Amino acid sequence: MPEQKSFPLPSSLEVVPGTEAAQAAHPYYIQFTPEDDERFWFYNSMHFPEPMHHFDMVTAEAAYCALGSFNTRVHVLPTTKGIDHRVINGRVYIGGVPVTDPAEIEARMGEFQQRAFYYYENWERLYDEWKVKMKALIADAQALPKPSLPDLEPIETTHTGKGVAANHALLDIYQKQLEGYFRMWHHHFEFLLLGYGAYMTFFDFCKKAFPEISDQAISRMVAGMEAEIFRPDEEVKRLARRAVELGIEDKFYDDMVIEDVLGALDQLGEKGKAWLDELEASRNPWFNINVGDGFYHYHRSWNDDLSMPFAALPGYIDKVKKGVNIERPTEQLIEEREQLVSDYRELLDTEEDKATYDQLIELAHRVFPYVEGHKFYCEHWYTNLFFNKIREFGALLAEHGFFEKEEDVFHLTHYELESAIIDLMLSWSSGTPPRGPQHWPAVVKQRAAAIEAWAEHTVPPALGAVPDVIDDPAIVMLWGITRENLDTWLSEGDEGNENELKGFAACSGVVEGTARVVKSVKEIGRLQQGDILVCQVTNPTWSPIFQKISAAVSDIGGSMSHMAIVAREYGLPAVVGTGSATQKIKDGQRIRVDGGRGTVTILHDEPVLEEV
Q1: Which residues are registered as beta bridge partners of 593?
Q2: Could you tell me which residue ranges the PEP-utilising enzyme mobile domain spans (predicted)?
Q3: How far is CA 512 from CA 216, 356, 454, 592, in A?
Q4: What are phi and psi of 355, to 5 degrees?
Q5: What are phi and psi of 574, to 5 degrees?
Q6: Residue among 59, 134, 4 nearest 299 (CA)
Q7: In this predicted structure, what is the pLDDT of residue 440?
């Protein structure tokens, strides 16, 4: 009998030489310990595909505080609790906390039914209230004043008996920013796991009722959704159509300098100003969307950097002029969805099974738009505001010599940033120089070097022994981590075709083409018309580039990952959750993507295009 394979143990991982101090600067509670060898972990390259700056780790901390709270204590999911996370060499590993005791599962099931079913029964009302809460939270963040320190306190402070000096406002603003960010993540998970749970229940019913059904067929039964996360791309298409209508399409071209284009339109007269007015209408709020997935400070919003929407305009304009349909095939998806739902219903033998089926698919359709829609408000609009507020503190500290530029603030942990703020508050109050300018520049330099070193370092996709069962709905549906998938990752190269990778069949279609391996958002510009995108993960904000590519492949992701959902909504052949596509496929190789079978085949070994 072959020996049971295991991924490397956490204790076997070594910190990249020279980055030990940067690693040690992370809080103690996210460092690996010897006890962690007893558990299974996987690299969360879906949300954290690049090495994390020290401040950016707050995105994992706040998210897992909230996710675990709702899993474990609010909705009380029967078979799973929260998610623990660790960081090494800038990479975030996560591990689920399963519930395995039958008595505990039964007790939790009773609680879950009382709690979750209330949400399912009142979904639309609660979701409408959720949007009000999120917009209020966004308004609170927007209303926070810019941190500043006057030379002298305004005379009004004494003449009104205010009794609080200006330096206290720094701590107040910072703590309100952090509190708002942690609160946002609680709102984020108020519905999300219930959305996955409803779909997973329908998924499990279908697998038992129709043993031959594919994962993709089930996922197609919930395609054709309307969600806010698709709206930014719709706005870019609208702007393209408007440019053609106004007869100013020649002002947009590949590699344009955006400031020059905006200036030329402003000088163009009525037509140019009309288009600029349309741009402003789109920007608020729909361009409050990051080019990443909302976990990195440098993944700026479209409003902060117009490069992404403007890069898409020439392609959309060209298609509009040629009469090519640039809309998502929503009607076709809905028609196919309804046909599939009907066809499979006919295969059920009993009225009882049909009633259960009807109830489960109806619930999945009701809850599913939230699974993508929440991202616009949470990971994008709010997170962009949060990072920009932190930049304001970076600018203030840079002004007082704590480091060279405002972006350096992201090399500090959120605890360290509070200490630097208090240092500045003390200095202002005492009239003596702050200590920060002697302390932080060297730290920032050391951590910037660590980020560069970590980026060159490859990490294992998982750590520790593979668990017998994985039934956390988020881990299965979002990350695509199943026992079968992990076994595939472990056995790659043992037998069969070493040039074939297997993953989840996200969207059907067979495409052969040139692989373009994109390892960060900064490399999106390298994509050429017809390329096959190969990446660790993508997200809905990359939608404008889907007009260029012919297929997509990712390392991580399940049937309900954002990449899988977006691929289906745009009819783009895709395979997700391959585990190692970005490592095994060379940039420029010719590959075949079979989105129906969930396979990617490397057609030859030598790259045909040099990496740019």
Answers
A1: 511, 600
A2: 528-598
A3: 20, 41, 33, 4
A4: -65, -45
A5: -155, 150
A6: 59
A7: 98
User: In 6-68, where do the E strands start and end?
Assistant: 41-43
Nearest to 301 by CA among 283, 287, 284: 287
Give pLDDT tens digits for 189-208: 999 989 888 988 999 999 99
**DSSP code string of 349-415:** -SHHHHHHHHHHHHHHHHHHHHHHHHHIIIIIIIHHHHHHHHHHHHHHHHHTTSSSSGGGGGGS-HH
- Compute the residue count for the chain: 612
Contact partners, residue 19, CB within 8 Å, separation at least 6? 89, 449, 450, 453, 454
- pLDDT, one tens digit per residue, over 122-179 is 999 999 999 999 999 999 999 999 999 999 999 988 999 999 999 999 999 999 999 9
Q: Which residues contact 414 (CB under 8 A, 6 or more apart)?
A: 55, 57, 58, 178
CB atoms within 10 A of CB 250: 8
The pTM of the full predicted model, rounded to 2 decimals, is 0.91
CA dihedral 187, 189, 192, 198 (to 10 degrees): -120
3-state secondary structure of 39: coil
How does pLDDT run across 19-52, given as a tens digit for each residue?
999 999 999 999 999 999 999 999 998 889 889 9
Please, what is the Cα angle at 357 between 356 and 362, to 5 degrees?
A: 100
Q: What is the dihedral of CA 546, 260, 386, 412, to 10 degrees?
A: 100
How many Cβ atoms sit within 10 Å of the Cβ of residue 485?
Answer: 21
Q: Is the torsion defined by CA of 422, 423, 429, 430 positive or negative?
A: positive
> What is the share, in percent, of the chain residues with pLDDT greater than 90?
71
Element (H, E) at 450: helix 436-455
Residue 13 near residue 43, CB atoms below 8 Å: no
Q: Where are the beta strands (DSSP E) in 31-79?
A: 41-43
Residue 611 has pLDDT above 50, yes or no: no
* pLDDT tens for each residue of 49-86: 889 999 999 999 999 999 999 999 999 999 989 999 99
pLDDT value for 540: 65
Within 13 Å of residue 460, how many CA atoms lie on the same side as its CB? 19
DSSP code per residue over 72-129 = IIIS--SSEEEEEEEEETTEEEEEEEE---HHHHHHHHHHHHHHHHHHHHTHHHHHHH
Rounded CA gap, 373 and 190, in Å?
13
In angstroms, the CA 576 to CA 472 distance is: 19
Domains detected in the chain: 228-327 (no CATH), 498-602 (3.50.30.10)
Nearest to 75 by CA among 474, 390, 383: 474
**Torsions phi, psi of 498, nearest 5?**
-70, -15
What whole-number distance in Å separates Cα of residue 47 and Cα of residue 479? Answer: 10
